[in-house]
Amino acid sequence: MGTQSVFATMKGTQQFMQKAHWRVCEFTYATGLVFFSEAAPLVSHGSVDSKCPLMVKVLDAVRGSPASDVTVKVFKQAGDGSWQDFAVGKTTEYGEIHELTTEEQFVEGKYMVKFETSSYWKALGLSAFHEYADVVFTANDSGHRHYTIAALLSPFSYSTTAVFLLADTDFLAAGKMAFHSVFLVFLAGLALCSEAAPPHPLDAKHPLFVKVVDSVRGSPATNVPVKLYKESADGSWELLSSKQTNEKGGLPELTTKEQFVAGLYKLELDTASYWKSLGLNPFHHHADVVFSANDSGNRHYKIVVVLSPFSYSTTAVLFPDSYHRNTTKR
Fold first, then answer.
1. 305/284 Cα distance (integer angstroms)
2. Which residues, at least 6 apart from 154, have a Cβ–Cβ distance to it below 8 Å?
3. Where are the beta strands (DSSP E) in the chain?
4. Alpha-carbon span 311 to 151, nearest angstrom
5. Pairing mode, if any, of strands 208-214 and 299-308?
6. Nearest to 61 by CA among 94, 43, 36, 91
């Protein structure tokens, strides 16, 4: 094979891998369009709903069904900033949890709903990128309300949205509204992710690339504060880097190859400050992406997050370190 043919093959491989990343994103979004348009809660607690101020719904985008037996933990932030255990449950055959807490217990405060996604996928014999998915929000600061939080899961992507209504509102209707909200986020992501591929080859010195997209304005999300943490031996999070997305919504130099060793990492996107700077009142305090890196050798990671004030979606693709060498050799 001639030199020009080799280069053409390498270039074609690189383009294929980049397109594959966005096909994964598009597939997840398209799947969500189908599931969430039809996946409103199949059962209602009727009069019991008035006593269930927090409902959770989880769907499996791989099997096209409700995600049953997903462990969901709820934490409440204490005065010292620590997270205290608040409630725990598992999704039913309908992918739902209705009785995590009561009206009396669910007082004003900051809460975190944590979906144990990694253990769910491992139980199905699949490897997952995210260690878990979480939703952090302030509840009942403007009066008592009912909250519905929905999540669509796949091994390398997840999306979450929330709807809150006055306490006397039908909870079944709230669930349907949550799914319609995710439906809109998927529509936006389907259009945006196909155009959001990084224009440059992988950077050998910077193995982590982050891209953030604003689904409200249909554009890159600029100046979003992003922090990268690594888990320490004692389980605490050590801050490694703190930067803001550029004019293309990207962060190509968040860490270095020397710094990005094997371990558990967390990306924290300050979505609240981003939306507030645009005059909008968001639901989430921040969006987190928690993942293990380089546990099977050095790799390049590309993580994309699509934002809206009440929803966000994230997907990831991994490239072997040899991919960079093969596509940059001349």
1. 14
2. 28, 31, 60, 61, 62
3. 54-60, 65-66, 71-77, 83-90, 96-97, 109-115, 130-139, 145-154, 157-166, 208-214, 219-220, 225-231, 237-244, 250-251, 263-269, 287-293, 299-308, 311-320
4. 10
5. parallel
6. 36
Q: Is pLDDT of 170 > 60?
A: no
Q: What is the pLDDT of residue 260?
A: 93
H helix or E strand, kind and range, residue 274: helix 271-277
Q: In this structure, what token pair is assigned to residue 7?
A: 């280069």
pLDDT at 218: 82
Give the integer Cα–Cα distance in Å for 285 and 293. Answer: 25
Contact 170, 179 (CB under 8 A): no
- Spatial CB neighbours of 239, under 8 Å, sequence gap ≥ 6: 227, 228, 229
Mean predicted confidence (pLDDT) in 12-37: 44
Residue 216 has pLDDT above 50, yes or no: yes
Residue 64, CB-side half-sphere exposure with 13 Å CA sphere = 6
Task: With cut-offs at 50, 70 and 90, classify the pLDDT of residue 163.
Answer: confident
How far apart CA 112 and CA 63 sit, in angstroms, is 27
Look at residue 192 and give its three-state secondary structure.
helix
Contact 179, 55 (CB under 8 A): no
Q: What is the pLDDT of residue 312?
A: 92
In this structure, which amino acid lies at residue 263?
G
Token code pair at residue 311 = 């929803």
Q: What is the pLDDT of residues 44-78, one digit of tens each?
A: 444 345 568 999 999 998 888 899 999 999 999 99
Can you give the pTM of this predicted structure? 0.74
Mean residue pLDDT across the chain? 79
**CB atoms closer than 10 angstroms to residue 197:** 16
Of 155, 85, 108, which Cα lies nearest the Cα of 316? Answer: 155
What does the alpha-carbon distance between residue 213 and residue 129 come to, in Å, rounded to a whole number?
Answer: 20
How far is Cα 199 from Cα 82, in angstroms, rounded to an integer? 41
- Which has the closest alpha carbon to 58: 41, 81, 45? 41
